[in-house]
Design goal:
α4 packs across α6. The protein has 9 helices and no strands. The chain has one domain. Helix content is 81%, strand content 0%. The termini are far apart. By secondary structure, the chain is an all-alpha fold.
Length: 217
């Protein structure tokens, strides 16, 4: 009986898990300083586990703050939450158009391997600074992921965070520990062209979902 109940719960939560997973992956795979740094550490094989853990835990913490904070603050103001959902749809749509634009101007990710080895403490501090001093981190995790997560059905917000946080952890683990295998792929513009098209498609799907859920004010 418990197995059936658990299975039913997972089936009901699957849309929220999938939404969190696709949204998080869509936001995180864009080339940026954080991804380049993780790739660099993976290629150098230097404090990779610490860098991956810091990045993944920061993402999960900020996403949780966004989802729980927005849900608690705006839970009694559905019109405000819907307005935020519409704003989120606009932002996600803009991200999707940006990804589509990048697909027609392909690029490659390069990681510089020069430099003396760094201590664990210095590496962790550098990871924190690269992650937390980027304003887009807060827009993506606290505001955007928070808005989408807060609009999930009652009881499924935790599952949404499982999907979003799991996607973040999976990406950083793959990027850090698979750097030696992934770097030739990331160095090819065609790989990023395909990835950007996929990101644009996922963003369009999420933006439409947000728009469809929001009430016209």
């Amino acid at each position: 009986m418990q197995d059936i109940t658990l299975f039913s719960t997972l089936v009901a939560a699957l849309p929220s898990i999938t939404t969190g997973l696709t949204l998080s992956l869509s936001l995180i795979v864009a080339i940026g300083a954080q991804n380049t740094f993780v790739l660099r550490q993976g290629l150098r094989r230097e404090h990779v586990a610490a860098v991956v853990a810091v990045c993944a835990l920061l993402d999960m913490s900020l996403m949780t703050l966004g989802v729980s904070g927005l849900a608690a603050t705006l839970g009694n103001y559905p019109r405000a939450l819907n307005a935020l959902g519409l704003a989120g749809a606009a932002v996600v749509g803009w991200y999707g158009l940006s990804a589509l634009h990048r697909a027609f101007a392909p690029h490659a990710m390069q990681a510089q391997l020069q430099g003396a080895p760094q201590s664990l403490q210095k590496t962790v501090l550098q990871t924190l600074s690269i992650s937390l001093l980027n304003p887009h981190v807060y827009l993506d995790t606290v505001i955007l992921v928070g808005a989408v997560g807060a609009k999930q059905a009652a009881g499924t917000q935790g599952w949404f965070l499982v999907g979003a946080g799991g996607a973040s952890a999976l990406w950083f683990i793959t990027l850090g520990f698979g750097a030696r295998l992934l770097s030739p792929l990331f160095a090819r513009p065609i790989a990023w062209r395909v990835l950007d098209v996929l990101v644009a498609a996922m963003m369009a799907h999420i933006a439409y979902g947000l728009w469809a859920q929001a009430t016209v004010l």
